[in-house]
Amino acid sequence: MTATFILGGVRSGKSRFAESLVTATGLERHYIATGRAWDEEMQARIAQHKADRGPSWTTHEEPLDLVGKLGAIDGEGRIVLIDCLTLWVTNLMMEEREMAAEFAALADFLPAAKARLVIVSNEVGLGIVPENRMAREFRDHAGRLHQMIAANAAEVYFIAAGLPLKMKG
Length: 169
What we know:
Its EC number is 2.7.1.156, 2.7.7.62. By secondary structure, the protein is an alpha/beta fold. The protein has a single domain (3-168), classed as P-loop containing nucleotide triphosphate hydrolases (Rossmann fold). Helix content is 46%, strand content 25%. It has 6 helices and 7 strands. The chain has helices at 14-25, 40-53, 66-73, 85-94, 99-112, 133-152, and strands at 3-8, 28-33, 57-61, 78-83, 116-122, 155-160, 163-168. A 7-stranded mixed beta sheet has the order 3-2-4-5-1-6-7, with helices on both faces. Strand 6 and strand 7 form a beta hairpin. Helix 3 (66-73) packs parallel to helix 5 (99-112), helix 4 crosses helix 6 and helix 5 packs parallel to helix 6 (133-152). The protein is globular and about 45 Å long. The chain starts with a strand and ends with a strand.
């Protein structure tokens, strides 16, 4: 297996840690951004992230067809950073996609990938029970997806306060 899965809270240092793992490999760097710029603040965040990564990364914006994009760019000598799965889950929910099928397709892709993969996601199951149905469904979907990805990843890290805790591998 060639996938590394990185979980943690918001602003915990997940992306910074993931980018450092990718950079250390010396492989051709690809970044799949799953977020959508719904407002000016998100547009500014995305622009800042691109600027911070610099020109040594090829960025692919893919809010829905994550497995299709992975298949299109998969190859030896490459490393792909996916940031982040929770934004992808949100996009799938908003488009009323078949979650189980989408999740299974991603989990099934991991062991077959030629490129190394680094996957980032927000751990959302450590807080209080959300007050509304959609938020509870989101939390449940994310939890199921995280279990599937962790089972199919060679390494799993949990990040808190910028510190990585290796959980698997």
